[in-house]
Amino acid sequence: MNLLRSRLSFGSLFGQRWSHRGMCNKPEEVKSQPPLAPAVPEPRPAFKLPGYRPSEMDKRILIWSGRFKTADQIPATVSFETIDAARNKIRVKAAYVMMGVTIGACLVMVVMGKRAAGRNESLTAHNMEKKARWREEIQMEKKSAAALAEKPE
C-alpha cells in the first residue's frame, strides 16, 4: 500500500522529486572531526611490583583450580591474570555445584510428593485439619471465658 501511495502521490504527478517516504530533502551536513591525538601509554609507577601477592584464600583457589599442585609451588608474586583465571574457574565450578544441588533437591521433592500422594496426604487436607484445630481452640476459649463470666463472686 505504501509503495502504491508513494508512486501515485500528488508531487510525482507534477514532476516534483520528493523522497519516497515524504521527508524533506535537507542535504546532510558533514561534520569535521578533530584530529585524534596519538595514544600515549601512561607510565607505570616505579614503586609497584608487577604482580600480586596471593593471600591464603588465593593460594587455596590456585590449588583448587589446578594451577598448582601444592602451596609450596606457588611463587611469592603471581600475575593478576593467573589469579583472575583461577577465580573464574572456581566460580564456574561453584555454579555447576549449585546447579547440581538444585536439580537434586527438585528430584527429592518430586519423590517426597509422590510418596505423600500415595499416603493420601495433601496440602489441602493438612490446611483443613489445622483450621479445624484452630476453630476448636477458639470455641474452647469462648467456653472458658463464658464459664468465668457466669461464676458468682
TrEMBL record:
Residues 25-49 are annotated as: Disordered. The chain crosses the membrane at residues 94-113. Residues 35-44 have a biased composition (Pro residues). Keywords: Membrane, Transmembrane, Transmembrane helix. It comes from Gouania willdenowi (Blunt-snouted clingfish). It holds the Pfam family DUF1075. Its main location: membrane. One of its GO terms (cellular component) is mitochondrion. Belongs to the UPF0389 family. One of its GO terms (biological process) is cellular response to hypoxia. This is Uncharacterized protein. InterPro entries: DUF1075. It is found in: Membrane. It is a single-pass membrane protein.
